[in-house]
Specification:
Elements lengths: L1 E2 L13 E13 L4 E2 L2 E2 L3 E7 L4 E6 L11 E10 L2 E14 L15 E6 L5 E5 L12 E5 L6 E4 L9 E2 L2 E2 L11 E2 L5 E5 L17 E9 L5 E9 L9 E10 L4 E10 L3 E10 L22 E7 L11 E6 L8 E7 L9 E11 L1
Antiparallel strand pairs: 1-2, 2-25, 3-4, 5-6, 6-7, 7-8, 9-10, 10-11, 11-12, 13-14, 15-16, 16-17, 17-18, 19-20, 20-21, 21-22, 23-24, 24-25
């Protein structure tokens, strides 16, 4: 069944356009599954390793007594007759990410969320930080050796993102660097905040969205080279505890992404939407300390291509990760979505396959 929500509307300026999206099925990973003595869950980011033909998924588990964290799971996702079947995911192994000397990262010190894979096999991880801790931990984007898992270096996160309480500024708790993607060819590494920085505007509510920042690094130097504003949608659903924001980016080229927005309220459940996004014509706000009150900033443009809630018989869960897989036999792009089950043993991790047509 082809689902092309607004897919034939006027294209955004520049580059390829997403023409159609087809739901190809779903699978799950059991909430009580284990690999190498660790519970598989909290899978908040995913990337495809073309060389090895497998996926890498980062867990956002902060660790505990004897528990490796941060850690990356290796898994295979296979389609059968062009469809992802319920048992189409197989766990293959686990890699612990460590400090540069190979020692374990202290428990509770890293909230890993996004993952990207360099052409040389290096693994990049985005972490939200812990701004409300007694000793605040800043958000980060770090590079690790893909074979040993050892830390190599960090990207230079601008000062505007660093948490401070007087005055309140920087990233919001649990609303920071959820996303991570490398542009084709690996020149740039992009991440984004899930909601606005404190000094940029309010967090998302049922009445209004939130101005996120998309932050671009030059991969080799680790230095920031661009920042753009992304207007995330308001929260869907008015009943109970709720949250919404930008949870993943997937680079199509150097000026265009697929973007995943997820909203949750206890009364309405999850709402997940897929957008095509372009930075053409957007204002580069690199180095801006504060954006609140500025009328001169042009945000990136976005166009809805799929509301996953419109798929017949499908109920989205906490989908946070997104990756291109190997191209489908008909030339379309395979896009895999991965859900974070919050490490609940009774709740499986949802995996979704989409066939995406990207036109000239």
């Amino acid at each position: 069944m082809i689902l092309a929500t607004q897919a034939r509307a006027q294209p955004i300026e520049g580059g390829p356009v997403v023409a159609e999206v087809e739901f190809l099925g779903q699978a799950t990973v059991a909430g009580n599954a284990t690999v190498e003595g660790t519970r598989v869950g909290g899978l908040s980011g995913i990337v495809f390793d073309e060389v090895k033909g497998e996926y890498l998924a980062i867990s956002d588990d902060k660790g505990g007594p004897g528990m490796a964290a941060p850690r990356v799971y290796r898994l295979t996702i296979g389609l059968e007759d062009g469809r992802l079947r319920p048992r189409g995911v197989r766990l293959e192994g686990m890699l612990e990410l460590t400090r540069a000397d190979g020692s374990r990262v202290p428990e509770g010190s890293v909230d890993a969320e996004g993952i990207a894979l360099g052409e040389n096999g290096d693994i990049f991880i985005s972490a939200e930080g812990m701004p409300n801790a007694s000793s605040p931990v800043p958000p980060s984007v770090d590079r690790f050796d893909g074979t040993s898992g050892r830390y190599r270096r960090s990207m230079e996160v601008p000062e505007a993102y660093l948490p401070a309480s007087t005055p309140r500024r920087g990233v919001r708790s649990n609303l920071a660097f959820e996303s991570l993607t490398l542009t084709p060819g690996g020149r740039f590494l992009d991440t984004a905040t899930e909601n606005a920085l404190h000094q940029d505007g309010p967090a998302a509510s049922v009445e209004r969205g939130s101005p996120c920042r998309v932050l671009r690094f030059e991969t080799d130097s680790g230095m920031p080279v661009a920042e753009f504003v992304y207007e995330a949608d308001p929260i869907v659903g008015k009943n109970g505890a709720n949250v919404a924001g930008l949870v993943e980016l997937l680079a199509i080229d150097e000026s265009r992404w697929l973007a995943l927005e997820r909203s949750f309220s206890t009364g309405s459940g999850f709402s997940v939407r897929l957008y095509e996004v372009s930075s053409a014509g957007a204002t580069n706000v690199l180095g801006a300390d504060r954006l609140a009150g500025r009328a001169d900033v042009v945000p990136v443009t976005k166009r809805l291509v799929l509301d996953l809630g419109t798929i017949e018989g499908f109920i989205p869960t906490n989908l946070e990760g997104m990756a291109f897989g190997p191209d489908l036999e008909d030339g379309r792009k395979l896009v895999i979505l991965m859900a974070d089950n919050q490490l609940m043993a009774f709740f499986p991790s949802q995996v979704v396959a989409l066939g995406v047509t990207i036109g000239p």
